[in-house]
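User: Fold this one for me? It's DUF1508 domain-containing protein.
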Amino acid sequence: MAEREFPGFTLRSSATREGSRYTALLSAHPADGSYPSYFAVYENRSFRDEASAAAAAEKALGLVLGVEEDGAPVFAEDENGFDDED
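Assistant: Here's what I get for DUF1508 domain-containing protein.
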């Protein structure tokens, strides 16, 4: 799990199991100690193992440009996070 600090929030990467697959996610932890919010990344892909999902989430965390007022991560408009040419 990796983390980055942004004004008012700490974003952390992680993975969670959904059935037999894993989902990459980012969690936004408010500096005021209130409950975190969770945001799935790479929603159109799932992963066969936790390590792959965690690596994808860590990559996504590195691509975050900032956070919105609710802690939602902000990415470049054309960023899909995948290594393909789309």
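One thing worth pointing out: The beta strands are 3-6, 9-18, 21-30, 37-41, 66-67, 73-74.
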